[in-house]
Specification:
The protein is built from three helices and four strands, in the order αβαββαβ. It has two domains: 38 residues; 70 residues, Alpha-Beta Plaits, CATH 3.30.70. 52% of the residues lie in helices and 24% in strands. It is of the alpha+beta class and 113 residues long. It has a four-stranded antiparallel β-sheet. The radius of gyration is 23 Å and the shape is elongated. The protein starts with a helix and ends in a 5-residue tail after the last strand. This is Heavy-metal-associated domain protein. InterPro entries: Heavy-metal-associated_CS, HMA_dom, HMA_dom_sf. Keywords: Metal-binding, Signal. GO terms for molecular function: metal ion binding.
């Protein structure tokens, strides 16, 4: 009978170890995300040359491929791009060049984003 009571205890121990391991993994992911946000810089561009939603989608998809871009949006109508990026990995100038290589003109909008 003593052997049977050990089985549930061992099962509980294994379960708690696995839950604790998963908890650490989630914590590490949250910390990694927080550290990326710590270096985050936001820039707002006025884009000239957007004539349709396809144009804004082309810019959006190009920015989506940039590893250092954390979040971004491209508005049409409005012709505004707001980009949050890791300032330790790229620059405003580099992001402007990405937009201009797609055939649009981009100017930084000064002030609060």
């Amino acid at each position: 009978m003593k052997k049977l009571s050990i089985v549930p205890i061992l099962a509980l121990m294994l379960f708690s170890f696995q839950a604790k391991s998963q908890s650490k993994e989630v914590t590490n992911q949250v910390m990694e995300g927080a550290s990326k946000k710590h270096n985050a810089t936001t820039v707002k561009f006025k884009i000239t040359g957007i004539t349709c939603a396809g144009c804004s989608n082309a810019i959006y998809n190009e920015l989506k491929e940039v590893d250092s871009v954390l979040e971004h949006s491209v508005e049409y109508p409005g012709d505004i791009a707001v980009i949050e990026f890791d300032g330790s990995k790229t620059s405003i100038k580099a992001l402007k060049l990405i937009i201009e290589k797609k055939g649009f003109k981009a100017e930084v909008i000064k002030g609060k984003v």
